[in-house]
Amino acid sequence: MKRLLAILTILALMLGMAACGAEPAPSPSPSASQPGTSSHAPSAEPSADPVTLKLITWVQQTNETAIANLNAAFSAKYPNVDFVVDTVGANDYPTLLNTRISAGDVDLITNLSAFDTYPQDFTRGVEKPAWETFILAGAYLDITDQPFLANWDQGMIKNAVSYKGKVYGLDMGGVAYNGMFYNKTIFEENGYKEPGTWAEFEEICNGLLAKGIYPITVGGADAWPLTSVGVSGMVGAFEEDLDGYAKGLWEGTRKLNDDRSMILWGRFEQLVSWLEPNVMSIAYGDCPGRFVTGKAAMMIDGTWNAGAIEDLDPNFKYGYFPFPGDVDGKPSQLQGKYDMQFNIYADSPNLDWCLKYFEFLSQKENYEPFVSALGFFPTMPGVTSSSEFVNSLADKNVRFKPSWEKHIIAPKGVGQYAAGQLFNINHLKALGGTVDTVKELADLAQADWDAGLAAAQ
Amino acid sequence: MQQTVKASFPKWALLLGILPALFLQITMGIIPSITTFILSFTDISGVKGVPWKFIGLANYKEFFFQQSTRDLLAVLRNSLVFCIGVTVIQNLIALFIALALNSKLVKGRGFYRSVIFLPVVLGVLVTSYVWLNTLNPMEGPVAKLIGLFGLNSGFFTSASSALAWCIFTQIWMAMGYSMVINLAGLQSIPNELYEAGEIDGTTGMQKFKYITFPLLWPTINVNIMLAIIGSLQSYQVILFTTGGRNMATQTLSARVVFFAFNINSGSGAGAMRQGYGATWAMILFIFIFAATLIYQRAVKRREEIQ
């Protein structure tokens, strides 16, 4: 008996230890909520009692400054309202979002993207995106009937913040992230201009390298600046029909190791050789500093980070160009996504003030400085960004379209070589991985992709 | 003594005495564990308000058949390497240091004990960042030193060395704890035994082999068990040093956290999957149970032979 008791106790202890990382949030009953039906009729004028609105966002210097200024302007108009803004790194932000919503400890939510990356008709066995889960949970307030929506671009309302005919947020603008910033001074000193073709890009990178200047830096330690921004840029520049490429991969008419894809892999191999040494140890937040101090001539990043560069050195001369890809012989155009989205937590005790905040944000005089500070392309008719940098991109923004990241979605459980955006160059030995060549990596990626598709059947 | 206890306390009072501990164990250990087992058969996300339902063995089917077998084997191999590496090396070093710091020949023993125990107090986050920054190949002090020999200190970013350095960091953080337990064990060995040994003319090695080690063995045994269970459930060092983004350092416990809390999904494309995370936790439990059982069998066999 004693022996049995001892065994049972040890089992319980071990099970407790094994389970301690996976304790669930309080379990709602299956019928506890009516998904996506939370709405709120605002009172004419919210209470004048002191209110603190809790807002969560991710660490990004430009965004944080812009939000702080917006909140200060709101507090100036409504002195009884102040804000607590909590931030974590972008990689950890989904966790903060999940836990705060589960705990009901938030009023205003920002999201890294709009409602996108949705499974397409040719995809099978893919996971539901997190934003859909939150809508089904009734976590986001339905703002479909709010009059301030009329101030915004209706295309944005329909494509970025709507789900099944209802509106759940406001998107602050578009960003491009298929290219890189470049140091104009270094370019001028060495007689280079923005490249329009891959050959010109090669000439610049090889030329800089020969002169002892590292061509490109990127925040490899955070992974996504390379495997999301870099890969989106390279694939987007090379394949004209991104949806067709994604569909071809799903239906087997295209392969990750077919002849055309191998040309792209070859360019990735070149790109890796132009990155500064130990790039996988550089944190995203440290990258602008390295770029501004001339450690590298170019920095792979999204247009959203222009503010960080200007904060570091207001006199720094820089520009931005998309990865050259020679599609149809035309210079590449910007590709990207709808960026920062604001949502209201549906169970917030301060819904009136949250809606007031949205109304405030929807006024041109408040949105214009905000979007200018963010460095986004505005999503409100009649608003022009005062950002010199954003306006300098106009000629590259004629055929703006969603990036590769917004077209591709992998089957659930796909192997590591075909995860994410499929071109996982971080597995190359040159970047600290274990795979010697791009050919080997392409074959591994295709094998993982095939296995993932088979499992999804 | 036993007689006194019987005389002083009725049985109900003894039961009352263990009630708080029993209550905590049931509410904080056993009930969540059983709940985790049940939730492994559901599609619960963990997000408040999201409907969920029982889905039978679907999570287990996904675990065994809907993920890359190569990646799964890599996770199991990493867990095993991490467990064996931490358990063996940590206990060997902890034993050696405890023996050294128990010797009266070493001056300033209290200071050394405090220094070696310090990482335990610092905790996993500080320890991880200390080593991450020390080995940072861009600015870290080690980079400058080994750079003189043309070497690179990007150990945490290299798939071939990252796991080894996670093991190193884990040992550096937890070794002081094992050392203190060993020291307590050493100090409980009666001095008379050593004095008797000296009269019999034993050498230093013989003292260790025939007196210290046999009497310290129960303490070492506890340390080994704690290290096995602790290393198999440890994910924090991996998360803070390598981010667990590379399969090279993914372990079972790291995967539990990955799925249950949607860690490291980058853009956050996927939602939390606590039902599936619970499935990984059950597999981890089986792994820990098997490892503990194998170790206990081995110890029992050794004791029987002796």
Lay out the secondary structure.
The complex is a heterodimer of chains A (457) and B (306).
Chain A: H1 2-19, E1 51-58, H2 61-77, E2 81-88, H3 93-103, E3 108-111, H4 130-136, H5 154-160, E4 162-163, E5 166-167, E6 170-171, E7 174-176, E8 179-183, H6 184-189, H7 198-210, E9 216-217, H8 224-238, H9 242-251, H10 259-274, H11 287-292, E10 298-301, H12 306-312, E11 318-322, E12 335-338, E13 341-344, H13 351-361, H14 364-374, H15 388-392, E14 401-402, H16 438-456
Parallel strand pairs in A: 1-2, 1-3, 9-10, 12-14
Antiparallel strand pairs in A: 3-13, 4-5, 6-13, 7-12, 8-10, 8-11
Chain B: H1 2-8, H2 11-39, H3 58-65, H4 69-102, H5 109-134, H6 141-147, H7 162-187, H8 191-199, H9 204-233, H10 236-241, H11 252-261, H12 274-305
Helix pairs in contact in B: 4-7, 4-9, 5-7, 7-9, 9-12, 11-12
The top-level CATH class of the largest domain in chain A is Alpha Beta
Distance between the termini of chain A: 50 Å
Structural class of chain A: alpha/beta
Strand content of chain B: under 5%
Total of DSSP H or I helical runs spanning 4+ residues of chain B? 12
> How far apart are the first and last residues' alpha carbons of chain B, in Å?
33 Å
Average of pLDDT of chain A: 86
Structurally, how many domains make up the residues of chain A?
2
Order of helices and strands of chain B: HHHHHHHHHHHH
H and E order of chain A: HEHEHEHHEEEEEHHEHHHHEHEEEHHHEH
How would you classify the quaternary structure?
heterodimer
Task: Specify Rg of chain B, calculated over alpha carbons.
Answer: 24 Å
Please state the second-level CATH architecture of the largest domain in chain A.
Answer: 3-Layer(aba) Sandwich
Overall tally of domains of chain B: 1
> Major beta sheet of chain A, specifics?
5 strands, mixed
Poorly predicted runs of chain A are: 4-35
Radius of gyration of chain A: 24 Å
Structural class of chain B: mainly alpha
CATH topology label of chain B: MetI-like fold
Backbone shape of chain A: globular
CATH homologous superfamily of the largest domain in chain A, by name?
Periplasmic binding protein-like II
